[in-house]
């Protein structure tokens, strides 16, 4: 039997996190291998090829800032780039930095076991790789494990079924078909207007109505792009000062919505609506802090909905009742207007729940909806799903699944007590999915690389979050979240979309104070971590 291959670091996943991690490790002189379940790079943008998929953070901001030549050379064509363009960008990055030679595609990591005797990770894949590394970096993605609900009879359906997050590479043509879409989150809201144009008939099965604000997507103006590129690094620095990691260039009021007069409020919300996109929630600084402020913004959007949707009964069903922004705000192009089309029908599952999927359609309490295709736009087992699918075993033979039985516990969202030399990129307990993910990913990759460099420089064998530091961090994340309205609805941030999943608010609101704390920890010689000699 041959002995396992040895590298300094194993990275799991070749999305934006894994690609930059590999580049950074190599440029710091470490050997690394990346394992990627998909057939190519790009992660989210490799898998989510459903019609209408595009980013909801503007392309000029939703991109790497670590390499000035890269950001100057790459040309985004639209305000919100479509999925194929973002995937081309990921491929360009992989080629530009010659990353592919260290990536094993179509290879899923199945187990990772910490060997206490020599402080290394022993990693296995479904293609028989057997590899030992000092460090294990989980770049497995927060939204990469599809959530497919168990609905009675689903296996008997004789038409075609798709999940938005595992869309066929060759695309799907719905022309002439009766299509059902289950779900009305961001993915559904992007796909529905386009499917409605193709399909003979579209039935949308809605469990919770979503808030949406317009994208006003358009081709980028080359003059504006040139101007922005002239000060790109300034923009990147500004991003890091924003709670969400983007949107610094929009004029801000910075006050409470409750202090605005009705006219000022209407004007500001209208200005944000006309600007488009997620920055709507940045209109005032308390929209996600108090119900009274939130109601003002929510009512503004509900009124817009009523102006767009012609049939008042349909508008009623589409009207969201939760706090706006509690679930991720959707950014749309013609979503609500799609319900004015004669070939589109809305089923409100609150009144008319799904009973079963039959060989020929979906049966709800009021009757059968005949379908040739079902699209599951039902989201993801977010933040922990991909990690917990791997058998990760830490010190003392304790599995990550056991350690996280009552919900994920991390220190800084980067390390886990009991799992030395394991790092999570955008893990639970970090700002992650509440930010422009490219900003968070870069921050984590750079922090991890610096940390690994520190260990090498000081001839240390291992770094591990201590229990007390982790305990305090989990409390801190819960406290910060409790000051916001985020925990008030059944969102995937809380794990509420997956039956049986422990409900814990997983991300930490607010990027800049978080980044400061991470910098402090590094400066202090990794306070809250135990560092061990070989
Ligand atoms: P991913 O891109 O998810 O990559 C993780 C990779 O790990 C995947 O390719 C997966 O196959 C691989 N993997 C997982 N487990 C294993 C294993 N066991 N073995 C081997 N490989 C494994 N964020 C924003 O900030 N702005 C946006 O506009 C935005 N739009 C989005 C649109 C969609 C449709 C979705 C689903 C998400 C969006 N996000 C957005 C979030 C998005 O996930 C991140 O922006 C970013 O792409 C995540 O990169 P990542 O590398 O961390 O993870
Ligand atoms: P999602 O936001 O979790 O939405 C899933 C939808 O499916 C929800 O409407 C949910 O209803 C519904 N659903 C889940 N299980 C169901 C069941 N058993 N029966 C009926 N309905 C069910 O997932 P997503 O739309 O894929 O988006 C996930 C995240 O990815 C987004 O929040 C965003 O961060 C990112 N994303 C971004 C973009 C973008 O614009 N760039 C696009 C897509 C995704 P409930 O609300 O009742 O749970």
State the CATH class of the largest domain.
Alpha Beta
- Class of secondary structure makeup: alpha/beta
Q: What is the CATH topology descriptor of the largest domain?
A: FAD/NAD(P)-binding domain
**Tally of separate domains:** 2
Approximately what portion of the residues adopt beta-strand conformation?
15-25%
What attributes does this structure have?
globular; 17% strand; binds NADP nicotinamide-adenine-dinucleotide phosphate; binds flavin-adenine dinucleotide; 8-stranded mixed sheet; 534 residues; alpha/beta; 5-stranded parallel sheet; FAD/NAD(P)-binding domain
Describe this structure in words.
With 534 residues, this protein is α/β, with parallel strands linked by helices. The protein has 2 domains: 5-145 and 381-532, FAD/NAD(P)-binding domain (3-Layer(bba) Sandwich), CATH 3.50.50.60; 190-344, no CATH class. The chain has 15 helices and 20 strands. The strands form 5 sheets. Strands 1, 2, 3, 4, 5, 6, 17 and 18 form an 8-stranded mixed β-sheet that branches. The chain has a 5-stranded parallel β-sheet with strand order 7-16-8-9-12. Helix 1 packs parallel to helix 13 (437-457). The radius of gyration is 23 Å and the shape is globular. The model has no long low-confidence stretch (mean pLDDT 97). The structure holds flavin-adenine dinucleotide (FAD) and NADP nicotinamide-adenine-dinucleotide phosphate. NADP nicotinamide-adenine-dinucleotide phosphate is lined by residues 55-56, 143, 149, 164, 182-188, 190, 207-208, 328, 331, 349, 377-380, 433, 490, 492, 497. Flavin-adenine dinucleotide is lined by residues 12-18, 35-38, 43-44, 46, 48, 53, 55-57, 62, 108-109, 139-144, 187, 386, 390, 425-426, 436-437, 441.
